[in-house]
Every structure is written in C-alpha cells, then in structure tokens.
Amino acid sequence: MTIKAFRQRRADLVREAQAIFDLAAKENRNLTSDENARDDAIGAELVEIDANIERAERQMERQRSVGAAVDGNESADHRSSGRNDGARFASLGEQMMAVARADHPSYRSIDPRLIAAPSAGPTGMSEGIAADGGFLVQTDFANDLLQNTYEAGEIASRVNRIPIGANFSGIRMNGVDETSRANGSRWGGVQAFWTGEAQLKTASRPKFRQIKMDLDKLTGLCYATDELLQDSTALAAWLYQAFSDEFLFKIEDAIVNGSGAGMPLGFLNSGAVITVPKESGQLAATIVAENVLNMWSRMPARSRKNAVWIVNQDVEPQLYQFNVKIKNVAGTENVGGIAAPQIMFTPAGQGGNQYATLMGRPVIPVEYAATLGTAGDIMLVDLSQYLAIDKGPMESASSIHVRFIYDETCFRFVYRFNGQPIWSVPMTPYKGTKTQSPFIALQTR
C-alpha cells in the first residue's frame, strides 16, 4: 500500500471507532462485548498502520535528502526538451490511468513512465513528487490543459502572464513608482528640459517600487467513474473539459475579486481601483448615461484601446435601454430643456460583432461581476495592466478512497499561480484633478 492508502485506512478506522463510542453514548450504555472486541482490533491495526506510516515517512525523507537540490519542474522541463517515444504517455488519459493505478492497492508496481531519475536523460516523462504522492503531468499535456484554460477565458486571456522558471517560487521586479503625470513625476521622476546652448543640464532620475509575488496553489478535484477509467480517449477529453472549466472559473474570479490572502489580489480589492460615484438622485439598481460617461473619463487615454466593459448579465437590459430611449439620472429625456447625454451602444451580433459594444469597446458578461445595483456590476478595465505569474508543469495525484462507494476515482491537479494589478494607486493626470486608473467600477446604487 502507498502512504496515502495507509493514511486513508487510518482515517477510516478512527471514524469507525468514533462511531462505536457515539452510538453507545447516544444509547446511554457501555460498549457491548462485540464492540469492545472491534475497538481492540481497531487499536491493534492502528498500531501497525502507524508503524508503516512512520517507516514510509522515513523513506520519503531519505528521498528528499538525496534530491533536495533538484527542482522537479526543472527536471521535467529538461527531459521534455528531448524525445523518447518509448518512455512517453500517448495521451493525458493514459497517464491518468497510470496515476490511478499507482494509488490502487491491487497494483504492485508503479508505471515506470511516472517516475524518472534525473540522470536518466531527456525522456519527456513526469517527475514523481514523493512528498505528497503526486506526479507532474507530462509537460505537453500540462501545456495543452493551460492553453485550453486561458484561450477559453475572456478575462484570463487578456492579462499580462509571465511564466516563472525552475528553482523560483515567485517574482521580484522593479515597477515604476508613477502616481502623477505632472512635471517631475512621470516615470517616478524622469524629467526633460528645453535647454539653450551652453546652459546647465538639470539631472533627474526615475523612482521605482518593488513588485513582489509568491506563487499560490490552486487545487482542482475531478471525479471519474470506473467505466470512464477504461477508456483513455474519453478520460482525456473529460479531464480536459472539467479541469479547464473549473480552473478558468477560479482564476478569473480571483483576478476580479481575489483577496490577496493565499490567492491573487483581484483588481476590485486593490488600491488601484477607482469607484465612480453614482449620480445625485439616481434610482436604485439603475445605470444611466452619466455613469458610463464618468467611468469612461477616468480611463487613461492610452489604456482605452485595450479596455473592455465587464458586466453582470443583469446589467444588460439597462444598457439596451440606451438605444431605445436615452435617459438621464431623473429618468426623463431632458431636464430643464437640457437633453440627456447620448451613449453609443451597439447590440451583440450587429456588424458581425461577438459582443455588444459601449463607447466602442466590447461589453463582456461574466459570472464574477456583482449583481445589478452593487459595486462591481459594471466595470471598465484594461486587463493588460494586471500582472499574473504561473509555473508548470502541474502536479497530479489520485485517490480511490474519496468516492469509493460510488465507484469513482478522484483526480487532483495542482497549479501554481498568482496575480495583482501593476498599478498600486490611481494616477493624477498632467492637467486636471480627477485621478485615472485602468480599473474603474461604479458605486453601489
């Protein structure tokens, strides 16, 4: 049995023993002779299991001490640069079948393609993770999984993503400490002067701030039936779909709403976001033309070409009203003879566009936006100003115990990722008093 199987068996026995005592307490009685005998048997088996776990942990510590200087991701990347078709899995489904069998007590050995010594040369195989019983997903399969994840995401596909190399767990980089576009503040202090002949040159220098991020773990679980485990092609297709969809959801939700504690910092919770106030007298749960214009005016001109509107679907009926009847904050077409502002809104499908457009920029409905009337229901963002880091290959592991009574095997995938806005605070423009930012939201109404 693997150490995971020993630990699972130990947990099962402890639960069984607790159930015996709970039943006796509920019935307000002592243990019966059969219950005493079973508790004694459980105790004896736990002693044996604890000894086996301790023995396995000693061996794992020996393995770690031997391979401490080797980064599993680096080894897998090095090996994947070569080619040895005899030592590679043909598909993700085939590899996951091998992972599932490695955890099954009826199989006496692990598929050698799951584990490769660093000295074995470039084989493109996965590296065993002895510390937690997992295996690195073969590099090409991992890349395909991540490609599917990011290509399907309207938010994730737009962020500035940087891969982290082997032997590193995060990033430290200098960012320009620019909070104002006034003279002497651009690029944190770079300044140019019109200088006459023979006049003294004035020195200036930029100011930097350090951007620091460490990789966090995103762990996904997938459940496969025993029938699905018999067909590697179907298993691969199912895992690609299930894994990509779930990881995409968690990544994009974190980019928008993340707390920054053990997960990415979402732009809505960052110091860079600007929350545009609602209009005086504005009705609850409405969006009016003035809101849109005010949000647009706070987006830096150089970011507008990349900007997109991110909205909750509850917001869409409000936007379509702009083309039916342009309303102002009071809900009428004009007040005191002053016409309400005109907003350019183009419905989805018109002109062959996949998305509706507002002020010429795509309107993308997502699940992560707040419901209508709440801050974050409509956002104007330039996602190229959001920095994300990640590291692969991913780790995978399996368990036959989590859903044993349902004849299902649990697959676990671990992806290391983090992110935060590049901007730390909004920017004061060169001329003007209202700050600007690539992350704009509308106040709760």
Strand content: 15-25%
- Total beta-strand segments: 17
Largest sheet: 7 strands, mixed
Helix content: 25-40%
Description:
With 445 residues, the chain is of the alpha+beta class. The strands form four sheets. It has a seven-stranded mixed sheet, covered by helices on one side. Strands 1, 2, 3, 6, 15 and 16 form a six-stranded mixed sheet that branches. It has eight helices and 17 strands. The protein has a domain at 270-387 and 424-442. Mean pLDDT is 78; it is low at 67-86, 117-133 and 334-338.
Task: Provide a brief overview of the structure.
30% of the residues lie in helices and 21% in strands.
Please describe the topology of this protein:
Layout: H1 3-26, H2 33-66, H3 72-80, H4 92-102, E1 128-129, E2 134-136, H5 139-151, E3 160-163, E4 170-176, E5 208-214, E6 216-225, H6 232-257, E7 274-276, H7 289-297, E8 308-311, H8 316-324, E9 334-335, E10 338-339, E11 345-346, E12 356-358, E13 361-365, E14 378-381, E15 386-403, E16 408-421, E17 439-442
Parallel strand pairs: 3-15, 7-17, 8-13
Antiparallel strand pairs: 1-2, 2-15, 4-5, 6-16, 8-14, 9-10, 11-12, 12-13, 14-17, 15-16
Could you list some keywords that capture this structure?
single chain, 445 residues, alpha+beta, seven-stranded mixed β-sheet, six-stranded mixed β-sheet, 21% strand, HK97 family phage major capsid protein
